[in-house]
Each structure stands twice: as C-alpha cells, then as structure tokens.
Amino acid sequence: MHSKSRMSGVERRLAILNAARPLFAENGFNGTSIRQIAKAANVSEALLYKHFPSKEAMYKEILNYVSTISSFTIKKLVQLEPKTETLVLLMYLIVKMILFEIPGRGKIQKMHERLLFYSMLEDVSYAQTVFNKNFANWYDTIYASFNAAVKTGDIVKMPVALLNRIWFVHHLAMALNLCHLTGKSAFKYDTTKEELAQDAIMFALRGIGLTDKAIKKYFKPEKLEAYMERLFN
C-alpha cells in the first residue's frame, strides 16, 4: 500500500493503462471487465474510475498507439522523391512493417495487432481509425510515386483503381500476419517467414502494376532492408 501512495497521478494512470493493455489484447473490449483491469493494476475499482470515467475511455487511450508508429515514419517518408524506386520501397515497408516486429516495439506491437483483430470482430471502430489514419499518412506519397512510375512507363495499364491496389497490398500483409499471430504459422509453407515476405512483396509489386523490368531494376531486398533499418534507427 505504501508504494501506491508514492505514485503520482500520471504514474498511476500509466500503470493502469499498462495493466489493461494486455487484457484488451487477449480478451478484446467486450471480454475485458473493469474488475479484471483493477485487479491486474492492483487498485480498487473506485480508484480506477478516478483516473478513467469508463472502460471505453481507457480503451480509446490505449488505442492511440497507432500514432506512435505513424509519427516517426511519415516524417521521413514524405521527404522521399516521388519515383518508381520510392513506390517499390513503400510496398516493401507495408509488408515488412506488418509482418515483422518493428525494432524496439515488438511487445507493444503484438498487443496492438491483437487489439486490431479483435476490433474487426467487434465494433470495427478501432480498426477503421487505424486504417484511416495510416492511409492518410501514406497515401499522398504513394500516389505521387505511382504517378511518377506511370510517366516513366513502369506501370502496366489495368482496370483496377489505385486505391484498391494499395489496399490489396495491405490486406495481403495483414492476412499473412494473422496466420503468424501466435508465433506459429497456421499453414505449411515451403519457405521461411523471411522468404515468404519476399514472395509476398514480389506478388504485391506485380499486383500494384509494376512492369517486370521495373521490378527487376528496383526490387533489391538487401538495399531495401538497409533503408528500413536506417528508418527505425
């Protein structure tokens, strides 16, 4: 009890959020109760309500995690020159960032992923917030790079809207991530997870419309991986 009294309001609030996050991730919003959160945080329900007016308010604050991912990537991505090479890089990042842990953010990223999938099974509001926010951050850069690739003849014509092409790349990465969410693959593949990611990226590059020549010229996994490492360091 004495340790509780030494906690400031900000520290106590953070402790409650840290206790609630894995519960929401494991059980979803509907499957998590205030009583469970209070017990995990080692506080009374009355004290919990002093910091958060409702379970919904707590859940919403926890879900703000997505902004921490977008904020430190988009600042660097918007500085990239719109061109075919940038388009390839962006598709590479979409697949790799979803399928693998982001350096230094592995634990919280896994919780975020579970929260995201639970949201799609429940009220969808969090999933919509995440997708809309990420899409808004990335779309302008992707759009400009795609148009640059069209002008240089690196995109084949197809009757599929760019918006749908981008979402299909994202959905492919999300589906692969879901299949590996527990750390064990739900399917038997003939390749390692890293090789599977490379295959998925190649599939995505073709799907978005890049020509074989452009893919051969710009899809250099070692170079792309090196850029990704610099981005997160």
Q: Can you count the beta strands?
A: 0
Give the domain tally.
2
Helix content: over 70%
Main beta-sheet annotation: none
Structural class: mainly alpha
Outline: elongated
| Overall pLDDT | 84
Rg, rounded, reads 21 Å
SS summary, helix count: 13
Report the span from N to C terminus.
40 Å
Order of helices and strands: HHHHHHHHHHHHH
Short description:
The chain has 13 helices and no strands. It has 233 residues and is mainly alpha-helical. The protein folds into two domains: 52 residues, Homeodomain-like (Arc Repressor Mutant, subunit A); 170 residues, no CATH class.
Task: Please describe what this structure looks like.
This protein is mainly alpha-helical and 233 residues long. α2 packs across α8, α7 runs parallel beside α10 and α10 runs antiparallel to α11 (193-208). The chain has helices at residues 2-6, 9-27, 34-41, 45-51, 55-62, 66-77, 84-99, 106-121, 125-151, 162-179, 193-208, 212-218, 221-232. The protein has 2 domains: 2-53, Arc Repressor Mutant, subunit A, CATH 1.10.10; 63-232, no CATH class. It is built from 13 helices and no strands. The two termini are 40 Å apart.
Key terms:
single chain, 233 residues, mainly alpha, Arc Repressor Mutant, subunit A, 2 domains, 73% helix, elongated
